[in-house]
Structure formats: C-alpha cells, structure tokens
Design goal:
about 170 residues, about 80% helix, mainly alpha
C-alpha cells in the first residue's frame, strides 16, 4: 500500500511541476516519505517516473470504465466528455505520458510504459466503439484532445465530438 500511495503522490507532483524541474529532494518531500523509503520502492528518478505513469494509467482506465452506455457513438461521446473532465481536473498541462516521453526520449522503460498506456487506450476505444477498424482513428482524436487541451480547452472537446459523430455515422 505504501508504494501505491507514493506513486500517487509522485503522479501529482509530476503532473503539476513537470519532469525536468522536479529534483529527487523535491520528490521526497512530495511523496511524504523519507529518502530511504522513497529509494526502497523507486531507486532512481526514472523509476519514480515509471511508478507515477503506471499509477496514472490505472487511475485513467478506471476513470473511463463506464459501462452505462452501450457500445457505439454514445459510448465514445461519453468517453470524450469524461476526457474533458479529466483534462480539466487532472491534466491541465496535457497528457502526463506524452510529457514523460518528451522528457525522457531515450529511456526504454519510460517509453515502454507510455507505449503500453497508449496501446490499452486503442483497445478500449475499439471495445467501446464496437468498431475495431476505427480504433486508431478514434485514438488520434483522443490524443488530439489531450494535446490541444492546454491551449484550446473546450473547443477541442466540441471538435472531437463532431469528428466522432462523423466518423461513426
């Protein structure tokens, strides 16, 4: 349980302050544990990033796990609405995974964590849309919203919903 709590606190710290600016000393403070405890679970800054990404991934998938809509257009529109809330409340600085990818472009473990997250999003979109053939197009819409959110906000959501309706017509 301690490891998961630390990962959650690291996720918040990286989301709010970015990856480059956070020193290990600052991450220790943000995690709320001693340096020894932090290093016991996450022996490097990169492992802290991966722990935060994995925590975020699980939280995001759980957040999107809404089976109240049957598969199809309504389900994807609901997912886009959920994405708008997520971006507003949890990711005002954009996608944490892509920010990590940008901050650690040559780190295989960080890149693998980002890749796994994105692949599972494609699978979720295939399932929720009942259109596996359009999963990648829906993924690109989702990623476009995540990328555009910091500058375009709700305009990105409106455009994404319009594209989803046209695509799944």
């Amino acid at each position: 349980m301690v490891k998961d709590e630390i990962a959650g606190r690291l996720e918040i710290a990286f989301s709010q302050h970015g990856f480059a600016q956070m020193s290990v000393a600052e991450l220790k403070i943000a995690s709320g544990v001693s340096l020894r405890t932090l290093y016991r679970y996450y022996p490097s800054k990169e492992s802290m990033v991966i722990g935060a990404l994995e925590h975020r991934h699980q939280r995001y998938l759980a957040y999107l796990d809404d089976e109240s809509f049957a598969s199809g257009t309504d389900s994807i529109i609901a997912l886009i609405d959920a994405l708008a809330c997520w971006m507003s409340e949890d990711a005002p600085n954009g996608c944490l995974s892509m920010n990590a990818f940008s901050a650690f472009p040559n780190n295989d473990e960080v890149n693998a964590a980002v890749q796994q997250h994105k692949e599972q999003l494609v699978q979720l979109l295939a399932q929720r849309s009942a259109r596996p053939d359009l999963a990648m197009a829906l993924f690109l819409i989702h990623e476009g919203v995540s990328l555009a959110w910091p500058t375009m906000g709700e305009h990105a959501i409106v455009a994404a919903k319009d594209m989803v309706r046209k695509l799944l017509k």
